[in-house]
Design a protein that fits this description.
It contains five helices and eleven strands. With 272 residues, the protein is an alpha/beta fold. It has two domains: 65 residues, no CATH class; 173 residues, 3-Layer(aba) Sandwich (Collagenase (Catalytic Domain)). A five-stranded mixed β-sheet has the order 7-6-8-10-9, covered by helices on one side. A three-stranded antiparallel β-sheet has the order 1-2-3. Strand 2 and strand 3 form a beta hairpin.
Length: 272
């Protein structure tokens, strides 16, 4: 494991954020040093399992294709799906001082509004933009669950988010300057990142995905639906995926398994 860890440490892109080195291991997922060690260990074990399965095939033990997943992937901890507690309002601010122009700031504010509203129409989650906090200096969360701000990674990422299990200090959505010129739908990029915020991993890590798609470890995950190349969580790779990064019907099915139906669809009954 140490060899793979060192190799990844040397080869992966990295960014320096608030004095900490973070490794870009999955295109838009930032890992600290300890997370990178776990990532390397699990990836090595999965590679060994695949090699053993291939050898079994070659020796005539029958089909032994390694089936690791079959659908929309949710993060788990101790066998339980990681999600925000019921009733949690996912509050956020957009740190205006980090954007070099009012146009960029306004674009991100509007695109965040559109992306959060679509997730609210998809499943039982509630986002709230606390716009009055946007004008405060710095990149602090200022009492919100997370903060959105522009960060120049040199094009290493288009945008990056966090998972529910990440420590509070890592609860930020980063917007790289390349975001403003990307060929992907800009609201779609934020829909994808907010999928991570809700606890969903990438869709293209399935065995069913084209082999050229990024290979990622599947530690602490649970599959929710069938493989979906149209998923908002699927990169555009191997000729599949979509530049719009839209929330698909299967995404809705999987998200509702974790968070229930949209809150607006609920009929509320007074206990009195």
């Amino acid at each position: 494991m140490g060899d793979l860890y060192q190799l990844l440490k040397e080869k992966l892109n990295r960014i320096e954020l608030d004095g900490e080195t973070l490794y870009v291991a999955e295109g838009d997922t930032l890992l600290d040093d300890e997370q990178l060690r776990i990532y390397a260990e699990v990836r090595e074990k999965e590679n060994e399992a695949r090699a053993a399965a291939k050898k079994a095939d070659e020796m005539g033990f029958g089909a032994s294709r390694l089936e690791v997943s079959h659908g929309l992937v949710a993060m788990t901890r101790n066998g339980k799906v990681v999600r925000w507690a019921p009733g949690t309002v996912l509050t956020y601010r957009v740190a205006r001082s980090t954007f070099p122009s009012e146009d960029r700031y306004r674009m991100v504010v509007e695109n965040m509004r559109a992306a959060t509203e679509e997730w609210e129409r998809t499943c039982g989650v509630n986002f709230e933009h606390r716009a009055k906090l946007d004008s405060r200096s710095g990149k602090g969360r200022e009492g919100c669950v997370f903060v959105v701000y522009e960060y120049n990674s040199g094009g290493t990422i288009i945008a990056s988010a966090f998972f529910p299990s990440d420590p509070p200090a890592r609860r930020h959505v980063l917007i790289d300057p390349s975001y403003y010129s990307t060929s992907f739908d800009k609201v779609g990029v934020l829909r994808h990142e907010l999928g991570h915020v809700l606890g969903f991993r990438h869709e293209h890590i399935r065995n069913e995905a084209p082999p050229v798609c990024p290979n990622e470890p599947l530690w602490d995950t649970q599959v929710l639906t069938g493989y979906d190349p149209k998923s908002v969580m699927h990169y555009f790779c191997g000729g599949v995926g979509q530049h719009s990064l839209s929330i698909s019907d299967l995404d809705r099915k999987g998200a509702r398994m974790v968070y229930g139906p949209p809150l607006a669809a609920a009929a509320l009954v007074d206990s009195g």
